[in-house]
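Posting this for the archive.
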Amino acid sequence: MPSTVEYYINKTQGEEHIVPCVKCTGKTTHKVLASVDIRGEDGDNNFSVSWANDHQVIQCLGCKSVSFRVESSNSEDYYPSDDEGNLEHSIDERLYPPRLEGLKGLGDDTHYLPLNVRRIYDETHLALSNQAPVLAGIGLRALLETVCKEKKATGKELLTKIDNLVSTGILTPTSATILHKIRTLGNAAAHEVKPHSDKQLGLAMDIVEHLLKDVYIFPMQAESEFLD
């Protein structure tokens, strides 16, 4: 039996899927606005595999943001769904732009950041969204290095540079202690190629974002709002 491929327009239109939103915090219900859905079958008279690829424009029913979803499956992929040996059909889902649940980012406030800081922040956020844990860990450390350099912190190593930001009043001792944990995380990623969990990296990113807000964003916003 020769391979067959069929294309359908809006076959999955109107479906709803619960996925992470690009703007909302966490997962929300998204509706398929339009789709190009592909169905195929490969094999011969003895054995064949059917497959499906759905390319969908989706909209969050909360914030109304629009993004893209690809769902792929085939007739042979299953995984255990419980301890009794029952199987469930496996579906591969990809979202564009890539995103990680709970990772919202600084949004438009990144324009308050110095150019080099913003560039490293954007690259680190992209690594986290694409679930590249080693690169994300290295990026978090590079982000701390860039902030220290931009603030002219003294010292040969990142450890002493972070401590120097305390002595100059840019960081509190408590903040420095937390940033040292992120520095250690970044060292493990860079030197041991150690991947950290999404939860660890997400928390580390939240902490670094608070640092960026305290050092750059809030002062700039206050300066523009309180002119007197």
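DSSP finds five helices and eight strands in the chain. The longest strand covers residues 27-43.
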